[in-house]
Design goal:
Blueprint: H1 8-29, H2 36-47, H3 53-60, H4 64-76, E1 80-84, E2 92-96, H5 98-118, H6 124-141
Antiparallel strand pairs: 1-2
């Protein structure tokens, strides 16, 4: 079966891959040794009052072992720590360190610049329509 390079599915998947590659490249160019996926995980952890490491894989629809490798790397870099649950020793809570907060801020500054550059030539109206379509696609995929 031939891939239709202008089909929605191809363009959507290819665009997401290109954006992640661009983010990784720009973070590296800025001297930030963190992957976009790791930045996203830190953002998720920071956005919740309590984050249990086993819940993250389900939240981002990724394999648990892949998520745990990222968590191990983030912990080794000093960006987060694991804290034992007071009632269930099997559970580990993830907590962002000060270094983690600093790296998140640095990453966000780079990502903001990249996003602005990528939005050149796209009107607010177009962006609003695109956002609504993305929301509908996500809702439809969860049915």
């Amino acid at each position: 079966m031939e891939v239709q390079r202008n089909s929605f599915r191809y363009l959507f998947a290819d665009t997401v891959k290109a954006l992640f590659k661009q983010s990784a490249r720009e973070l590296a160019n800025a001297g930030i040794q963190i992957l976009p996926e790791q930045h996203f995980l830190l953002h998720l952890i920071a956005s919740k009052e309590e984050t249990i490491q086993s819940d993250l894989a389900e939240m981002i629809h990724k394999d648990k072992s892949a998520v745990m490798r990222h968590i191990d790397q983030l912990e080794a870099m000093g960006y987060l720590i694991r804290v034992n649950d007071t009632t269930d020793r099997r559970k580990k809570h993830l907590v962002i360190t000060e270094a983690g907060k600093d790296i998140m801020k640095q990453c966000q500054e780079v990502i903001d610049v990249v996003t602005e550059r990528n939005l050149v030539g796209i009107t607010e109206e177009e962006l609003e329509v695109f956002t609504k379509v993305l929301i509908k696609l996500k809702q439809n995929s969860e049915k």
